[in-house]
Amino acid sequence: MKNNQLIKLLSALSPEELRGFSRFVRSPNGCVGQSPLKLINILKKYYPDFSSAAFQKEKVFRRLYPGQPFNNNLLRKACSRLKQLLENYLIDLEIQRDTFLRKKLLTRVYRQRNLHHFFDKGVKQLDSILQAGPGRGMDYHLEMFLLNKEVYFHPDTETFSRQVASLDRLMEHLDRFIMLSKLCFSSEMLSRKAYLNDNKEVLLLEEILREVGRLQDGDGVSIYHLYVNLIRLQEKGSENLPTLRLTEELFKEVIEMMSEEERDLIYKNLINYAISKYHAGRQKYGELVFRLYEIAIQHNLILHRGYISVAAYTNVAVVGSIQKQFDWTWAFIHEYDQYLRSDERDNAKNLSLAYWYFHQNMFERSVEYLQQVNFSVPSYGPRTRTLLLRNFYELYRRNPSQYDHLMDQIDAFRRYMQRDQLLSRQKSAIYLNFIHFLPKLINADLLEKETRKTELLQELNARQPIIAKQWLEQKIEELM
Predict the structure, then answer these.
(1) Could you tell me if 205 and 235 are in contact, meaning their C-beta atoms sit under 8 angstroms apart?
(2) Residue 307: helix, strand or coil by DSSP?
(3) What is the pLDDT of residues 118-161, one digit of tens each?
(4) Which end of the chain is more exposed for a tag (fewer CB within 10 A), N or C?
């Protein structure tokens, strides 16, 4: 019964919403007999997980219909009625939460019922709300288009007069909505092309890019230029730090003008582009990646539905540590761990702290935290073992007697990677190249002193892709 649609909906309610739903079922709006009220009182005893061994449909039926033989069809009908009430309650909640939506629906009702005075008043209120708000992105132009469409199709609108203001406005906002939508999702497709080899053609993109160049400076125009800069970066795929910095500044300028979905997409594509350059060895991108993370945290882009992903959490900790922002990073690690899912929290936090200590040259402490990470979790194994080897290398440089232990750890990592069947071939390559190169760095003393750095750098550049390339380059430079 746990997979029942009604149960899934009930599980998604907060405790306060569940209490509100119980009141809704008892209210005149919800009352359709005693069965739904009795059923919700039975089910809420198993909330929120509905995982009790006693939660079985036969037991629920006996409490709902005492003395009757079990009838699965009858129980399903009762659940269906309660589900319909729950859907009505969720709609009611959304209308209460979103005053603009409420006014919009009410204005539509006025038009359908030919209540012209109320309709005109509602249109003016909706227009004022939209104009007064900060939004100038896709959602703004879509709402302005829909609002003027309502006006245009109103019976009192003289559609054949010489000048119809609502038609001019709806066309203007329709054009802007189409342009912004095309720019937004073209950027998304270009991002997918880089990571998923998705080569679908983006129609009319060049025409829209040219049209943006003809736009006059004004309300919200910077959003278009933000998209154009981002798309040009994604199309070329080459290093262009000045354009990326300009794009960052435009993003900060217009971030409050866009919907949450638009901000999320732009941030994701910006950070992915910057990180790809940073991981390719462009160290000067590191500071910009850190600033983008600061923007994401300031504007709450780092959380999705109340959670932070393990990748985002650990990446922020790593980049902050590399940039020597240790106080800021420490605060982030300990403040945002609460937003990790409970089954992911310990591993992600321990790995983040291991990086934090590593970049302060506190290698023993870093190892202590790495030893608390569950290596058997696929997403942690290679990354954790790589950092462990980096720590052991640093400790070996301090104490050469650790040589055998370090080589044993490299061999153990090699065997681990040979057994791993989950990583893609491309992902495995970055770790295998690291495993193959590190012994050559360790045994650099066997190479000619005058040429060892050159030989190692040539070998490193030949082994691509490779994880921790910047660190390896630094270690080569430190050789005597």
Answers:
(1) no
(2) strand
(3) 999 999 999 999 999 999 999 999 999 999 999 999 888 887 77
(4) C
